[in-house]
């Protein structure tokens, strides 16, 4: 048998952090060498970082990447390692993977299909490489083949599919197999989305089965550049079977997943396939002979895996908790902040954000240990460890602030206090009613009239929310902490948020997820909670409430859904209108068919309200703090969903909607 130990690595990189990124690459190589790995696949653009944005268009960045690649060459002694970086050729920039073998650069493979949808903008910076083309390039002091290249290691042939290459119909792998590829490497920067892992595993395992190869899939890890989270999933599959799968959403800077592949086994499976036909007369100039032999190794003994959150837990709730927690951890350490501040209203959104910070601390300490966790975020704990070594850290890293006006209730005040106590936050209570009244009286004097709820409802609501902003910003500044905004995606869709009020913050952790999901997730957190962390029963005080901004006088009984519409309907309309790009009439038809419990007239009013509010409030979405992406549909105008700030507001479409209602 020809057995080879191969590995895929997940790396937590930072754009343009040359020394840090190189250190993580070296650590992955060291971990792989300790496991006697001979072939290691590192993620896409891992040398520069994937999220460099327009910095990719800097010649200095491209040159620096080349120099750092040259510095890494000696680290590959006795191994074959692929490293992703941008490479210039013929006055064009390409997304490439360099194959480093035993201290030498032996070739470069360029990405053929660029990701240009959703949050991906690769065609802005890179050019797609044409299939079947190989040229000569000079890089890092070597002249080597560059392009659609396969590598032959003493009869073992290796091809590449770089991330998006594997998600298209005409995959490069199909052509590699015709030239006798035994192994396909896929260096990826595949963003996290809820439920995406099943699709990714199927993509890898099915490719290994259909092509009769071993398939090695690597990925980035963590909150690399501010918005996008990578789950670090790594997979080694062979002939349709997943041999190894690395942990997801972890806190290590480098994770290596290795497995032993049986080359004879995959070759014979391919030989038995009636559909396989080698390209015997094909031009083999794309195949590069490499003076290096991948050594034979012994088979792995059977491994008994301990239970993890992925095989015992409720998947979407767990994924959400761990993805946002990891995103917050990386944002904290990469921004060099000294903790978080949350304006805790006693409602669902702010309670979710505060709870996610506490979950972040508990998960990080559980994986890294208290001392390493503190070192990772550059934090020196003032409180010595107690029986619960996590609680003092939460107390120091998280400050929650409840700010009352005359319209605030004891219900929300007590709920905020109970949740803060349960999760271990430092909790502050401020009465800002005098500030609110001060603003109102000054404006009344200037205008020469009294402001009333009948005439000035929206203005009086907004000034209360804005009054809370300066205080909580001041607390964050005094503590050197990061203020977290608490608006959700449903509010962003219709502008149901006060700019410079509840949108205050440097990052918005839940702006990528809808209100209905947040409420379901909080009920899960109340009674179950993340694997290894447990529930927060105090959230019952939040979950029994109807969501409310609590900005009108208490006698009015203000609720969010009375102001807008039921949140499940709002989210369904948003998905159809924005996610599926449907017209108001199409949205109404779809929503009416799925919700017969509502009168069509009422649904039409809600559809009209959504489109009016959506088009009116793009300016608010433009000003939101960066949001963490957790779904494959998003409203972030910087990375996902572009819409004009000024528009016709769907007036003609809504008029036609009214005409249909009258028919």
Offer a few descriptive terms:
663 residues; alpha/beta; 4-stranded parallel β-sheet; 22 helices; 40% helix
Could you give the distance between the termini? 75 Å
As a whole number of angstroms, the C-alpha radius of gyration is: 27 Å
> Uncertain segments of ≥5 residues (pLDDT<50)?
none
Give me the secondary-structure category: alpha/beta
Number of helices: 22
Mean pLDDT: 94
Query: Got a strand count?
Result: 20
Q: What proportion strand?
A: 15-25%
Largest sheet: 16 strands, mixed
- Helical percent range? 25-40%
- The outline comes out as globular
What do you see in this structure?
The protein is of the alpha/beta class. It contains 22 helices and 20 strands. Strand 18, helix 11 (410-423) and strand 19 (426-431) form a beta-alpha-beta unit. Helix 1 runs parallel beside helix 2 and helix 18 (567-579) crosses helix 20 (600-616). The longest helix has 27 residues, at 453-479. The model has no long low-confidence stretch (mean pLDDT 94).
Please describe the topology of this protein.
Blueprint: E1 3-11, H1 18-34, E2 39-41, H2 59-72, E3 80-89, E4 92-101, E5 104-110, E6 134-139, E7 142-147, E8 150-153, E9 156-160, H3 172-178, E10 183-187, H4 196-211, E11 214-223, E12 229-231, E13 235-238, E14 241-245, E15 254-262, H5 263-272, E16 287-290, H6 309-312, H7 315-334, E17 340-343, H8 348-368, H9 370-376, H10 391-397, E18 398-404, H11 410-423, E19 426-431, H12 433-447, H13 453-479, E20 482-484, H14 489-494, H15 515-527, H16 540-543, H17 560-563, H18 567-579, H19 584-594, H20 600-616, H21 618-623, H22 651-662
Parallel strand pairs: 1-2, 1-11, 2-3, 5-7, 8-16, 9-10, 10-11, 17-18, 17-20, 18-19
Antiparallel strand pairs: 1-15, 3-4, 4-5, 6-7, 8-9, 11-12, 11-13, 13-14
């Amino acid at each position: 048998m020809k057995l080879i130990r191969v590995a895929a690595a997940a790396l937590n990189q930072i754009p343009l952090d040359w020394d840090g990124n190189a250190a993580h690459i070296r650590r992955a190589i060291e971990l792989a060498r300790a496991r006697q790995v001979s072939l290691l696949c590192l993620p896409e653009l891992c040398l520069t970082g994937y999220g460099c944005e327009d910095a990719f268009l800097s010649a200095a960045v491209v040159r620096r990447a080349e120099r750092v690649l040259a510095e890494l060459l000696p680290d590959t002694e006795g191994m074959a390692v692929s490293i992703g970086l941008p490479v210039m050729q013929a006055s064009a920039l390409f997304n490439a993977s360099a194959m480093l073998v035993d201290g030498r650069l032996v070739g470069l493979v360029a990405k053929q299909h660029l990701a240009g949808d959703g949050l991906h903008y690769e065609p802005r910076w890179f050019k797609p490489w044409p299939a079947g083309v190989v040229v000569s390039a000079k890089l890092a002091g070597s002249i080597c083949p560059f392009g659609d290249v396969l590598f032959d290691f003493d009869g073992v042939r290796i091809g590449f599919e770089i991330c998006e290459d594997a998600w298209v119909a005409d995959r490069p792998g199909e052509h590699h197999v015709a030239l006798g590829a035994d192994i396909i490497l896929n260096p990826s920067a595949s963003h996290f989305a809820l439920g995406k892992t099943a699709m990714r595993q199927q993509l890898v395992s099915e490719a290994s089965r259909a092509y009769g190869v071993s398939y090695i899939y690597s990925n980035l890890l963590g909150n690399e550049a501010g918005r996008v989270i990578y789950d670090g999933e790594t997979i080694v599959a062979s002939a349709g079977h997943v041999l190894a799968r690395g942990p997801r959403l972890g806190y290590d800077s480098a994770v290596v997943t290795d497995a032993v592949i049986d080359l004879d086994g995959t070759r014979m499976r391919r030989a038995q396939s009636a559909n396989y036909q080698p390209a015997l007369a094909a031009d083999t100039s794309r195949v590069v002979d490499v003076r290096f032999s991948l050594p034979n190794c012994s088979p792995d003994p059977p491994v008994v895996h301990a239970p993890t959150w992925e095989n015992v837990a409720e998947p979407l709730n767990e994924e959400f908790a761990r993805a946002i927690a990891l995103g917050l951890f990386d944002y904290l350490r990469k921004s060099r902040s000294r903790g978080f501040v949350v304006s805790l209203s006693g409602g669902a959104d702010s309670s979710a954000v505060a709870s996610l910070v506490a979950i972040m601390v508990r998960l990080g300490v559980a994986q890294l240990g208290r001392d390493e966790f503190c070192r990772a975020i550059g934090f020196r704990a003032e409180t010595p460890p107690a029986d619960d070594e996590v609680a003092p850290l939460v107390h120091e890293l998280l400050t929650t602030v409840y700010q009352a006006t005359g319209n605030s209730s004891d219900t929300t005040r007590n709920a905020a206090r109970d949740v803060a106590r349960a999760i271990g936050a430092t909790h502050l209570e401020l009465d800002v009613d005098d500030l609110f009244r001060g603003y109102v009286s000054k404006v009344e004097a200037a205008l020469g009239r009294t402001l009333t709820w009948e005439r000035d409802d929206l203005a009086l609501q907004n000034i209360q929310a804005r009054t809370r902003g300066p205080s909580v910003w001041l607390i964050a500044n005094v503590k050197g902490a990061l203020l977290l905004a608490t608006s959700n995606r449903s509010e962003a869709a219709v502008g149901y948020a006060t700019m410079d009020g509840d949108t205050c913050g440097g990052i918005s952790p839940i702006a990528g997820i809808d209100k209905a999901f947040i409420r379901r997730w909080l009920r899960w957190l109340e009674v179950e909670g993340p694997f290894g962390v447990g529930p927060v029963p105090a959230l019952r005080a939040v979950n029994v409430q109807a969501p409310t901004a609590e900005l009108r006088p208490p006698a009015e009984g203000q609720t969010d859904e009375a102001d807008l519409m039921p949140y499940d309907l709002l989210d369904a309309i948003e998905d159809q209108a924005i996610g599926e790009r449907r017209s108001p009439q199409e949205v109404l038809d779809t929503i009416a068919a799925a919700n017969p419990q509502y009168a069509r007239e009422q649904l039409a009013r809600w559809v009209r309200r959504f489109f009016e509010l959506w088009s009116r409030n793009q300016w608010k979405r433009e000003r939101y703090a960066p949001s963490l992406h957790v779904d494959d549909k998003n409203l972030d105008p910087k990375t996902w969903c572009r819409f004009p700030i000024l528009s016709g507001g769907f007036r003609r479409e809504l008029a036609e909607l009214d005409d249909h209602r009258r028919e």
